[in-house]
Design goal:
The complex is a heterotrimer of chains A (256), B (264) and C (290).
Chain A (H helix, E strand, L loop, with lengths): L2 H6 L2 H24 L10 H14 L2 H32 L1 H15 L7 H8 L3 H25 L3 H9 L4 H39 L4 H10 L3 H29 L4
Chain B lengths: L1 H7 L10 H23 L10 H12 L2 H34 L1 H14 L8 H8 L3 H25 L3 H9 L4 H12 L1 H25 L4 H11 L3 H32 L2
Helix pairs in contact in B: 3-12, 4-5, 4-7, 4-10, 4-11, 5-7, 6-7, 7-10, 8-9, 10-11, 10-12, 11-12
Chain C lengths: L23 E12 L2 E13 L4 E5 L6 H8 L7 E6 L2 E2 L7 E4 L11 H12 L3 H14 L15 H14 L4 E5 L7 H18 L2 E6 L2 H7 L2 E5 L6 E6 L14 H35 L1
Parallel strand pairs in C: 3-8, 3-9, 6-7, 7-8
Antiparallel strand pairs in C: 1-2, 1-4, 4-5, 9-10
Helix pairs in contact in C: 2-3, 2-4, 3-4, 6-7
Classes of the chains: A mainly alpha (256), B mainly alpha (264), C alpha/beta (290).
Chain lengths: 256, 264, 290
Amino acid sequence: MTAAAITRTRAFPTLVGVLALVAAIALIEVLIRLGAINRFIVPLPSQIALSFERVIVEEGIPERFWLTLREAFWATMLLTVFGVGIGVLLHRIKTLRLATETWVAAFASAPTVLMYPLFLVIFGRSANTIIMMGFVAGLAPVILKTVEGLAGTRRVLIDVGRSFKLTPWQLYWKILFPAALPSIFVGIKLGMIFALINIVGVEFLINFGGLGQLINELAERYDLAGTYAAICFVVLVSVLFFMFTERVERWLRPVN
Amino acid sequence: MAQTGQLTQAPAALPGLSRVTLLRIAIVLTILVVWEATAASGLLFRDVVPSLVVIVRALWNLLFEPDFYWHLGVTAGEVGTALLIGGLAGLAVGIALGANRFLSQAFEHFLYYLGPTPKIIFFPVMIMWFGVGSGSKVAMGTISCFFPIALSVAAGMRQIDQVLIRVGRSFRANTWQMVTKVYLPAMRAPIINGVRLGLGVAIIGTLLAETKLSNRGVGFLIINSYSTFNMPRMYSLLIVVFVLAIGANAVVSRLGNLEAIKTR
Amino acid sequence: MPAATQLKRGKDGSAQAQPADAILVVANITKRFETPDGVLTALDNVSLTVAPGEFLGVIGPSGCGKSTLFNVIGGLVDGYDGRVTVAGETVAGPHPSIGMVFQEESTFPWRTVIDNVAFPLEIAGLSKAERYDKARHFVHLVGLDGFERRYPAELSGGMRQRVSMARTLASEPKILLMDEPFAALDEQTRLLLGDKVLQIQQELKQTTLLITHNITEAVQLSDRILVMTYRPGKTKRIVDIDLPRPRTSEIVSSEAFGRYVAQIWNDLREEASRGLIDDEARKLHSGDKD
């Protein structure tokens, strides 16, 4: 391929982006070695890379990862059951929906994570606090998307159901729910993302749990390279998780 | 037509109040009653669910406490500064990414995937870089709001009606004129939406940082009331923060809706 | 062939107008595009000239490269062979002497009518008073007095196109370049707006180049019409429109008008059907690819 043709491929810009990142990291390494950047504030990237192995092995990353994952799992379970349940309820009872929809939307924009000291009092310094904080953070989008999905079912599909004299229960199970499923999954995806963000954040804040707690602990130990490594690791996990949810969503989309 | 309206409308129990309003009042009253009952029964650890009277009194005291407003000012200043820095940076980066396809394909993924990560975990690094004072809190707020604003602006740039850009170019507007007279006005709705999201996460980022390590600000007050186990005070602080956050969000939302109506 | 029509062909075979003092000279424009399906030749050695005060209509089937020609003359596109000169100066980018009116909705929705019209004056750096003075004159010219403070969303489609036109006229270009400005409007509105355009053009003695696919419109407004072939776009024929001036939309009912329309349609039909066949073939082929 000619040089010009290469620049036109889809992969080229992405490659440039990645190379730019690598170049930036290399630049930082050089600047620190030259003393332009204080190495007690920003550790050498090479040192951070080396710390990865140490952190993974010594700090029990697999167990921590598993713990955070379990918390996320339970939060997601709660989200699905209560979020979808409340969403269905609101859709079923029109007056209730009209009364509370703005409240739910307001709740979605509220800084719920700031309630963590309150939850600490209620649930103590335990996994329950973390799970509940994740649940509360992700609840609103699940409810809103469930209602949106159910309400957005095309009129004609409902009419088909009514023409076959389906009971309300059957109507829900056989028509409304399947039609709303893509929207519900989007809501659960959003809920999971918000939940995970808050779970890791609260783990950090209350110094309990898995990955988030690790960062806090390493920071308090003044393990500079270790802290940076742990942060990188958590960011990586978060990015992979997000990518995963995107894949699942795209996989479900063609059904629509 | 008015008569049909009257026929289909369900009779309201009280004149002037719709069913929705009645239901809302009923829900609120139920919650308050259940709360008070729980407080009185002593089912939960007493202070976790204090009586409404106690909460209201604490709220009242809080609102008349001059110190509180000083802390509120500190937090507001930090959030404002964070929004300013993060907003301008987000705007600049967003415009660059939205205008240039190559830059977008090379770098926008980073922003997109870095966005939904818990920014609070960067706090130890912020402390190292900016100290234990307001600097690290502003930094937290800034990195929190930078991402949603940059992504909103980039998406907004791409949604601009292309013909408007051609109009600007056909009249030979220079770059500054294009940005101020064509790009920015055309993007007012997505910009405001980005700012709304940014405001929300800036508030969260700044306040969380204050709860973690600070001796000033509303976040500090909240964690302080936790360590002194002053639950009524914590509740009042949370109420104030929630009302302000939701209120700010509603105001910016309203602004956004107005702009969306004016634009096509 | 009706006597009133004259064919003009230059020595090199390209269709030319004679006036040596042409204000717009488009010389041998060839424009090719790279597409996933290969190289597409949009324009193939197209040349034309426009005399000062003349109204030239350019008509062709969809896909004949009209819009490409519009963008080339307007300086919004480069990478072509050939040259465009305005009053002797070569066009390399949007030229101050050329004003463009686009096909799509192009009013700025966040600006009032008067602010829209004043836009080019704002870019040029005129003072506020000067801007509004001039803008008001052009708002009046297009017949939108009283609507200065309204927003485009409050106006009809035809009114919005008038605002776009006023905005371009406000920059007082030597040449007004319009790309199917009335495409989105209904027939009656088009005829009435055509009247307005005639009126304005006569008052300002504005040199105009109108690109359209509507034969009635072209004949109604133009002094000469250039008929283009289907892709690759070449000049097929130049027709002199010897209808009296000043004109109004009443001209559409005259016999001479009908003859011009018939003759041009004769040329166009051949090109248009080539376009249709090509289109259908492509749709069929793309179905196979999936």
